[in-house]
């Protein structure tokens, strides 16, 4: 079995190497007719861009994608610089009419996006001409190798039950050199995919046949991302099924996130696109779906007829009604651990790194401030966007709508959620984004903390203080501190993944949905010199100051009625 694992690892590395090496294959150039057709289709109104692109990429030279991209971006810059100079000149002359006229000649959008669109037409090589073979050599070998590496664990791990032996001794799971190599690869992948899509055009060629089957069009970088997302979750889910086969909750939960990611986040949007409907992920709630109220999305939905209006109403109802109601009955776990694709990737691909979540007090303080700041940022952005959309202005109270949207998309949507949130799994743990940045998680956390039936109950008499629960809590909660006191765990950050219960050797922890009364049951030990115990019993004085929230909140207990409340 060990030999089979080693063979699987080698096969996986071969597939990964070919997949990465594909970026450097193929040649790119355009004919005059292909370029003219593209410019006409895009509706460019200036001749300069056509001239510059003609000089750049209409050639008999066999350019690499990097040379091709560089030339396209230079042509883009030359064209826009020319019209920017004219705009500045007319502005200096106070010739407002001529100044305004120049804006229609500028090329809008990102240079790498223009390069990608041209590269899809210009490419030649094995990835485009032999997509099926390349798929087998990349995705196929990667899947086979990963499964051969994972499946022998069914035998090697022995009887069902949590086995984490040596997890802090391996370079891949204890921030060693392998972990850093994985980090570098993941971060590089996200940077290229997000910001330089033309460099991954060969990957899109490989998936073009699948994309045509699902949506009738060619694959984009986002199709590559979505397809990879689903494949990785499927493969790593097999690891979850083996590792947690003793726990029915984990098996069902893993199946649930797979279903919602593959069906709702990938297949349904692609099929909707093929039917000329807006591709929409029906499980993606605002504010995680931060661009739901952007003007371009609202216009798209309004122009899509009945289905667009339905999606608009569904998105609002999901955010304002369904989400808080579901959190009340089941806690935020119903979404974060059972539905969300980000959580699904964290629980599958990120599971080997869950022990890296920081449990320090400083980390908790950073989490509290940062995640609520992102939530506030997303709400302000949405209010400004809606105001400018309905009033037709560009700004609100001096805040430019486009600036705030671009800032949020770049810093939060791309860097935090993607580059850092996923790329840093091997070092910071698997729930960096969920814990520190996700605005929907913050929203769900508010409801869960103050108005929910969910809690994790503990049996302090059975706790042996092994620390497994705290070690493997991906949200940085010191679960053991609660378990030792027999105190219910009620935290805004808890996603109800249930791993703490799964790794407990004594069955101390249990995920429950019950009455709100008695949900918060602090059991701190009080000394006689700290408080008059008789007065406390008779007059229901305060037991504990809770530092989690800004301000001073106190939990008070009526010992006669066995009730706990906040004042």
Helix and strand topology:
Layout: H1 2-21, E1 27-28, H2 32-42, H3 48-57, H4 65-92, H5 96-102, H6 111-122, E2 123-124, H7 126-129, H8 131-150, H9 153-156, H10 177-195, H11 201-215, H12 221-243, H13 248-274, H14 295-302, H15 306-330, H16 333-336, H17 341-348, H18 361-391, E3 395-396, E4 399-400, H19 401-423, H20 425-428, H21 432-436, H22 439-450, E5 454-458, H23 468-471, H24 479-485, H25 499-502, E6 509-513, H26 533-539, E7 542-546, E8 553-558, E9 563-566
Antiparallel strand pairs: 1-2, 3-4, 5-6, 7-8, 8-9
What is the radius of gyration computed over CA atoms, rounded to a whole number of angstroms?
A: 27 Å
Sheet having the most strands = 3 strands, antiparallel
Q: What's the shape?
A: globular
Distance between the termini: 60 Å
What's the average pLDDT? 90
Query: What is the number of beta strands?
Result: 9
- Strand order in the sheet with the most strands: 7-8-9
Number of helices: 26
Helix content: 55-70%
Percentage of β-strand residues: 5-15%
Structural class, from secondary structure content? Answer: mainly alpha
Pick out the low-confidence regions.
540-567
